[in-house]
Amino acid sequence: MVYQATVLNVMIASPNDVAEERRLVRDAIYEWNAIHSKQFNVMLNPIRWETHVAPEMGNRPQEIINKSILNDADILIGIFWTRLGTDTGEYASGTVEEISRHIDSQKLTSIYICDKPIPPSQITEQYQKLQIQIREWKPSGVLEFYNDLSIFKQKIKDHLSLHIQQNTYIQNILNNPNPA
């Protein structure tokens, strides 16, 4: 049966130490669509720089990512575990830049942090920078901590439903699908 839906782009942002979580978020979005898309008249489109950014020269790599996908993202899901990521020259990491710009645009941003134990060898400068960033974010919103991947995936689906129903930015899009 054909139905109309508003497509919301969901950017999955993270350093490279949470590849499994990135896949789980993508899968959770597909599962959410299969169950809820028709009910909410919303289709969530997972976007990642690896799949939605073409090779391009002439600008900072992060600026190319921002222009190609971040600016069109309605929702950003940030994920961290042991790394903050690579410095962009303007921000502590590409993921931090994406999150900061997304928040500055007053768009929906959710941050998930893995707090499962890490081997002492992974307590590096990257991990210490991440801990500083987490302390900076804490007064600005609600962070979600997880230590089990199946629970993490379920939380993503549950939180997407809550956001679709309750978030002011998303509600404005859904109530005004064709802004002037």
Describe it for me?
- This is DUF4062 domain-containing protein.
- This protein starts with 5 loop residues before the first strand and ends in a 5-residue tail after the last helix.
- It has helices at about 20-40, 50, 60-70, 95-105, 125-135, 150-165, 170-175, and strands at about 5-15, 40-45, 75-80, 110-115, 145.
- The protein has a single domain, classed as Rossmann fold (3-Layer(aba) Sandwich).
- The protein has seven helices and five strands.
- The chain is globular.
- It is an alpha/beta fold.
- A five-stranded parallel beta sheet has the order 2-1-3-4-5, with helices on both faces.
- Helix 5 links the parallel strand 4 and strand 5.
- Helix 1 (about 20-40) runs parallel beside helix 6.
